Amino acid sequence: MAGHRFCDGLTRRDVLKVGALGGLGFSLADYLAVASTGGVPAGAADSAILIYLAGGPSHMDTFDMKPDAPEEYRGEFKPIQTNVAGIVICEHLPRLARVADKYTIVRGVSHTVAAHALGTQYMSTGNRPLPSLQYPGYGAVLAKERPTPPGVPPFVAVPNTPQVPGYLGVKYGAFQTNATPAPGRPFNVRGISLSNGLTIEDIERRQRLLEDLDIAFASFEQRDDLLSGLDTFSQQAYAILTSRRTREAFDLSKEPRNIVERFGDSGFGQSCLLAVRLVEAGVRYVTVTYGGWDTHASNFDRLKDRQLPTLDVGLSALFETLAERGLLQKTVVMVTGEFGRTPKVNGRAGRDHWPRAMFVLFGGGAFGGGKVVGASDEKGQGPKEKAISPDDIAASFYHAMGIDHTKEYRTPTGRPVMIVRYGTVVEELFS
Description:
14 helices; 8-stranded mixed beta sheet; Alkaline Phosphatase, subunit A; 14 strands; two-stranded antiparallel ribbon
């Protein structure tokens, strides 16, 4: 998946480590550090997959259609019946219509942050952005609360993610692949694949050298959170490289042809297949970013020709494959963007930013499927009754993962901060 442009635009020890690794082409520790700069209750899910629709998808043209609204609001698309009586979605999502029993549509999600970057922060953390504090994203919290065995990265982003570890520190950052897989081609993740004659024995020898360096610089690390975080990345890199289980999880060639074909030939679809394999291997949290939803102009052509068919194939295959492999009950799936789009079509056949109404999809885990929670008004301009905030979405997500969203962490300065400050669990999602 290509990147999309939105409308609104080291210490001595570090150098020694990078040099020691780089001499063998062992780049994962360095990569991980750079990439992230920027007792579980019964019934809780083991893993989660976030499908992030960057740019802000139109709720009116996907999962919250208004066929009875005036023409300038309802747009060009027609609703179709899903496999759940009474639930309709867009005609350009026929495969998702056939698996509607596997997800819940949340309508009437509402906030007031209409800028891409700030809206993304809000929807990625469940906390309204503050200039004085950077909140951790979902993946960082899961990496802290639900650690994985050695060799299994807790948080993987395909190909990247706007979610940051915030005040939790770099050691809880994401492993970003920086690329998307394609059918029929080997998918090599930088640092995972050994090349140029490099062997596991070479890695183990260099790891012993790094351990000697760790002892030499230990007194400095004790006084530096960044150094401590970088050291965690090095340990994680070594564990991943020497883990056959993790390396094989990234190898889509091990999937039967019919499963690969089910996910389609897009980077997004194959990334969804990779997400299934990663949670199957024990990864705690996977994000798949699919951009291109910033449709200020030619909204309907762009959606029907590209965005919606690609989403339809990849996301429906994700739900089907998780269910077939017995993973859906223990894997929460969340689909969201940063906001919705204007109910009224503009003069360029487009829709502009509109945070007052948007949708979120939940599936798997305790969420179940085949229902709609919440509603927007007759023109899709805002919540019909009670608004569901990003804070509430986050509280509900953490509840499904068996994490108390009111739990307090301490920032590096000692400030106590709740995981989600103002959210409330949406009980209807679990009924």
